């Protein structure tokens, strides 16, 4: 079973509210949503952010949008007004999630080819 980076199947968005990070993972093709739902778990996201020690990671499923939304508490070093971090809003942190790998059955269709374009 081939393993590919999540960003080949989905794109992401990120935002903040205080010390809380919000990361959405949206399937390019709704046919891939179940694959994402099965493998992009709150525990895997917690592991990806282990160095930031999230106090809680909650996953929300949005099947009509073919999307998952993750809310991570206490990962932004206090948030915009308290952190000296360059990315106080956490806008770049969706890439941590999109770097996760996904096992894709051979018969499963992907929407992006190796060069990053749509197929």
Number of beta-strand segments: 6
- Helix and strand element order: EEEHHEEHE
- Radius of gyration, rounded? 15 Å
What characteristic shape results from the CA principal axes?
A: elongated
Strand content: 25-35%
Separation, N- and C-terminal Cα atoms: 20 Å
Question: Can you offer a commentary on this structure?
Answer:
With 119 residues, the protein is of the alpha+beta class. It contains three helices and six strands; from the N terminus they run βββααββαβ. It has helices spanning 33-39, 42-48, 94-98; strands at residues 3-5, 10-17, 20-27, 56-62, 67-73, 101-103. The strands form two sheets. The chain has a four-stranded antiparallel sheet with strand order 2-3-5-4. A two-stranded antiparallel ribbon has the order 1-6. Strand 2 (10-17) and strand 3 form a beta hairpin. It is elongated. Mean pLDDT is 85; it is low at 113-119.
């Amino acid at each position: 079973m081939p393993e590919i980076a999540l960003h080949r199947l989905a794109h992401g968005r990120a935002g903040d509210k205080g010390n809380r990070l919000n990361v959405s993972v949206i399937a390019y093709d709704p046919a891939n949503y179940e694959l994402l739902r099965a493998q992009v778990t709150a525990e895997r996201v917690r592991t990806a952010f282990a160095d930031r020690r999230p106090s809680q990671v909650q996953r929300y499923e949005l099947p009509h949008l073919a999307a998952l939304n993750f809310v991570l508490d206490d990962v932004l070093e206090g948030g915009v007004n308290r952190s000296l971090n360059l990315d106080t809003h956490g806008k770049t942190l969706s890439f941590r999630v999109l770097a996760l790998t996904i096992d894709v059955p051979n018969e499963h269709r992907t929407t992006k080819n190796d060069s990053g374009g749509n197929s």
